[in-house]
Design goal:
8 helices, 19 strands, 26% helix, 425 residues, single chain, 3 domains
Length: 425
């Protein structure tokens, strides 16, 4: 049985093998880690989908492999019933519901002609009908594999995989849009003076590709402002000791996350994604906040899940943990997926306003500079206040300028009027 490189996360279609944990002759169990892979801005352990005795090992350290590539071959074992990293809810789902890999573009066993008139709706269970309805799939366009043409869950999976395969083959998601050509730089700069060359790391290549794709395929606009963080600074000074006793450092970031989530609830389009295939706007009712972390290897963006459900103390503890894992390159692949909005905070480094690039498929990003004391008119008086530079970059295809201005106004208000009740332990 071949053990292949599985899909491990959003955008992680390939990776570099950084460690091989087994050898030919070893007996492994399904779910056991067999290699470590640098992919999707993280180093992730890859589990075996089947157990048995290893008869062939087809990768080595330094190899770059793609999803579906054979890692090793085993004999005398059984396939894993489910992924060891899946959640209980996912494990309980039917195994057939996983999307299959479509290899032959000419095979139309699961997909009817999309241009054809809708025929009669085939038989299907209530559960299958609900899944199809939630996904926006017309059952009349799905060819059922059950008895009498009955549509089953796996038929929906094949239908979706077929559509995705057609889109990918057409180059819909190419990093460089069709019609645009970018010249490659290959100049020999040594003719002008001494130089030193160093190879780009796999992570830097991934970052480079993502940044070019995001900057070219999105309609970027940025909105600037400043927020008076006097209230937040006073609350930090008041509760700093209590939080340290509870095992957390009370930095400004947890305050800003809570203020951001409150603002996103008022402006749901900023917590959305554009489905370019279905031409729909997907409004998300969960708040997963990506936190850009500056590391020696490059910029990583771990995602703080369900930020709206966590206290200020929970946020402070989790932020410290994910930042440390990011710098040590110990983030799991799924720790950097599922984000709905990203914060890029350069305040600890310095600088003022900057224009961050939206982290696709998100539609907006918050850039924070270094807080500086400035003169501010308060009422009829001139006072010195700590002001935080704020930039919101957004995708103008989804968000209009007026909406962005209102979002920033509400965000500034949420920061300046942060409630003390949210800080108390």
């Amino acid at each position: 049985m071949d053990v292949r490189f599985p899909k491990i996360g959003e955008g992680a279609d390939s990776g570099k093998v950084v460690a091989v944990l087994v050898k030919v002759g070893d007996t492994i169990a399904a779910g056991q880690s067999i290699i470590e892979l640098e992919a999707g801005k993280a180093i992730a352990p890859i589990p075996a989908s089947a157990g048995g005795k290893i008869t062939a090992l087809l990768v080595k350290e330094g190899d770059t492999i793609n999803v579906g590539a054979v890692i090793l071959t085993v004999e005398g074992g059984e396939a894993a019933a489910s992924s060891p990293t899946s959640s209980p809810a996912k494990s309980a789902a039917p195994k057939a519901a996983r999307r299959p890999v479509v290899e032959d573009d000419d095979d139309d066993a699961a997909v009817e002609d999309d241009g054809a008139d809708d025929g009669p709706t085939p038989a299907a269970s209530p559960y299958v009908r609900k899944v199809a309805r939630d996904l926006g799939i017309k059952l009349s366009r799905v060819r059922g594999s059950g008895s009498g043409g009955r549509v089953q869950v796996e038929d929906l999976g094949r239908y979706i995989a077929k559509l995705e395969h057609k889109v990918a083959k057409a180059g819909r998601y190419a990093a460089e849009p069709q019609g645009l050509q970018f010249p490659l730089v290959g100049t020999d700069f040594s003719v002008f003076g001494p130089v030193t060359s160093e190879p780009l790391s796999p992570l830097r290549k991934i970052i480079s590709s993502r940044m070019v794709e995001n900057s070219v395929t999105l309609a970027h606009v940025s909105q600037f402002d400043e927020a008076d963080v006097s209230v937040i600074e006073a609350l930090r000074a008041k509760y700093k000791g209590a939080y340290e006793k509870a095992g957390a450092k009370l930095s400004p970031t947890p305050f800003l996350i809570q203020a951001l989530v409150a603002t996103l609830k008022l402006h749901p389009k900023f917590n959305a994604s554009l489905n370019e295939v279905a031409e729909t706007l997907v409004l998300k009712h969960y708040y997963n906040i990506g936190i850009a972390v500056d590391t020696d290897a490059g910029l990583l963006v771990p995602v703080l899940k369900d930020a709206d459900k966590k206290s200020l103390l929970d946020l402070a503890k989790e932020l410290a943990g994910i930042a440390e894992k990011a710098r040590d390159r110990k983030l799991a692949a799924d720790a950097m997926t599922g984000g709905t909005f990203t914060i890029s905070n350069q305040g600890a480094i310095g600088g003022s306003h900057f224009t961050p690039i939206v982290n696709k498929p998100e539609v907006a990003i918050l850039g924070l500079g270094k807080t500086a004391k400035k003169a501010l008119v308060v009422g009829d008086k001139l006072e010195i206040r700590p002001l935080l530079p704020i930039t919101v970059s957004y995708d103008h295809r989804v968000i209009d300028g007026g909406s962005a201005a209102r979002f920033v106004v509400d965000l500034v208000r949420a920061i300046q009027e942060f409630p003390e009740a949210a800080v108390k332990l």
